[in-house]
Amino acid sequence: MTLKECKKEEKADREFQKKFKFEGSINVLTQMMVDPAATEKRGGGKNLPLRRGEILDVIQFTNQEQILCRNSQRRYGYVPRAAMLHL
Predict the structure, then answer these.
(1) Cβ(66)–Cβ(32) under 8 Å?
(2) CATH number for the domain harbouring residue 27
(3) Which residue stretches of the chain are H helix?
(4) Coiled coil: which residue ranges (predicted)?
(5) Quick check: 53 and 34 in contact, CB under 8 A?
């Protein structure tokens, strides 16, 4: 990883912590897959765009309806629990 890529990731992580009021280090709890039968949704606001079959890193189980996740492009957002499957 180059220095430029490392600084870009650090900046994205700081923006995530500010936007979601997340304190502490960012740890991946588990990985989950978006249900292949789920409808694809565009992201917006604090929601993460959904693509069928995509594997997401789970950062935090926020409540009974949503999970805070990170996708492969290092974007963060909320995903409905109903659209997720355990690996």
Answers:
(1) no
(2) 2.30.30.40
(3) 3-19
(4) none
(5) yes
